[in-house]
Structure formats: C-alpha cells, structure tokens
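[09:14] KT: can someone run the structure on this one? pasting the chain below
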Amino acid sequence: MRGPVRIAKAVLRRVRPSGRGGVDADLIHAVKNELVDEIGGIKGQMVAVNAGTRSVQDQQSMAGTRIEQLLAEVSWTRDEVLAAFERITPMARARLLHAARITDIDQPTADALNYLGSHLGPLSDVGLWRNDPVVVEWAAGTARVGAVNERIVEQPYVHGALASLPPGSRIVDVGGGESLVGLGLASLGHHVTVIEPAGYPYEHPNLTVNEATLEEYEPDAPVDAVILLSAIEHFGIGAYANNGELDADADLAAMKVVRDLLAPDGIVVLTTPFGPSAVNELERTYDVERLGSLFEGYRIEEVVIASRQDATTWTVTTTAGSLDDGITTPGAPGHVAMVRARRTA
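[09:31] RB: done, structure tokens below
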C-alpha cells in the first residue's frame, strides 16, 4: 500500500507544475485520481480477503461439524485412538512408516499399534483379524507378550484329535472365522468347509466358505468330522443370538444339528471354557453336568482339561477317557475342556 506522500511524489515526476509558483489544476486532479485508484485497489483487496476469510471459516465450520458427527458415531475406544494419533509427531510417523526401531515407539504410537492389532481395529472390518494365542502389547520404547490365551492348547488339540483321519476327509469347522485351523487342515489335504456368517478371508482349493449359520448349512453328504473350537459357548448368547436375547438351550440344539451332519462314527472335536457354571453377555462356562449334556447321542473318547497357570502359561492338568473318569468341576474360572467324541449309531 502506497501513502499519499508517495503518490504525490510519483505524480510530480510525471506532471510539471505551473510557472506561477502555485499548484495547478492538472496536478491536483492527477493526485486525486491516483488516490482514488489506490483506495479502490485497497477496497478490492479487502473484499477478496473478507470473502476468503468467510470461505475458510465456512469450511472450518463444516469440517468441525462433520468431525463431531463422526466422533459421535464411534466408540470411546476409537476416540482415544484418534487422540493418540493427534499426538504422534510427523517425524515419528515417518519413522514408523519407513525405518522404525523399538526406541522410536512413543506411547501414542504404542496405543495406536495396540488398537490396530486388536479385534476393534480395522482388520476386523475386512475379516482379517485373528484370535491368535499370543497377544503382543506395545508400550513406549518396548513390546512384550501381554497374554497367552487358551488357544495355545486348543488349536494343537484339534489337529491332534483329527490326526487319524486320512487325507481327503470331509471336515466342517463351525464358527472358524477367527482362526487358521480350517485353512491349515485344507492345506494338509482335507476338504474343509468353514461355516461362518461373517465370512472367511482365506482361499484354498480344498476350502469352502459357507456364509450361513449352522442351522442353515445343508451338506450334500455326511461329513467325517466337525470342529467347534471355542464356538459352542456362544450359541444363543447376546450378540451371537438372532434377536439378542438369551436362548438357554441353543447350545444343546446345536449339538443335535452337528450330530445330524456327521457320518456314522464321525468325529466331533469341541473346546470350551470349563469351571463353575455361568452365563454372561458373551459366553457360557461349562461345568461337568452341562458339558455332559452336550454329548447325548455321542460316545466320548477323550477329555483333556487345561488350566491357566499365569498370564502366559497354560498346562494340561487332567486327561481322561470320559467325563466320569475323574473329571470334576474346578472351583474357579481359568480352565478349558477339550473333548473328542464320535456319533453313535
């Protein structure tokens, strides 16, 4: 912006004053015109700036409203993770993406990594989250084994219980969407169907995915084995029920459906929480009596009880040929029952 003095000097260099010693009309008009033009330019700039400011403010308001809407739609867990991401510096993000070492991990980054690897994270949106036996926990500058869950004994048990089946056997894995057992058995040469309403993201020539419930599944021939790995305890419970209401005997009905799927002498392998009888919004815990009621129409061949010793240790505490062979209900949670049985004629 030019001031009046600078404008006048610029005009004087172009307009010669009169010889009478006064200021002639041409000079006055020239200065006035220059001032008017300058003021007009300034006014135009101010209008443009004001319009731009309003546009920015409008955009910020719209963005803020959308952010508030999005945050209102997600859980508190996502809120915490979003806040954690805001605290990660650009340099930390760059290191994380390209060449991060354990010392580069600050707490906000650790919080984000824990979330991304959890069942609440984005992998679950595409069905790729797995309920792995070993849970890794990140913290600032470190990572550790946070827990080892019951699948550390359940998954090997399933493979061992089916080891006698010849390649090419027909196997159904009920609710197997969060494990690699179905894919592993297909890779070993068995013909596997994973029944999972949410789908199963893996492919193999020996693998079929049936996006249906157990009750809706209709095989074209009897099957040689059915797996219920940490599945039976969810039937008729909370989010796993069709209407969200408890169906107290849905697990017993499911075992009857399984029996109808099996060929004579077909195998069922079942793992489930074991302890004082209980039902919560996620699962049942079976005592000896309720566990035995699942196997009407079956002949139990083996019962294995494994128990949690600490956060990272599970051990087999009891092995028996039936539920009547020294199996008692534990006095506290923290146990899993693993059973192999056959369909009776």
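[09:33] KT: thanks! Residues 71 and 78 are 8 Å apart (CA to CA).
[09:34] RB: yep, looked fine to me
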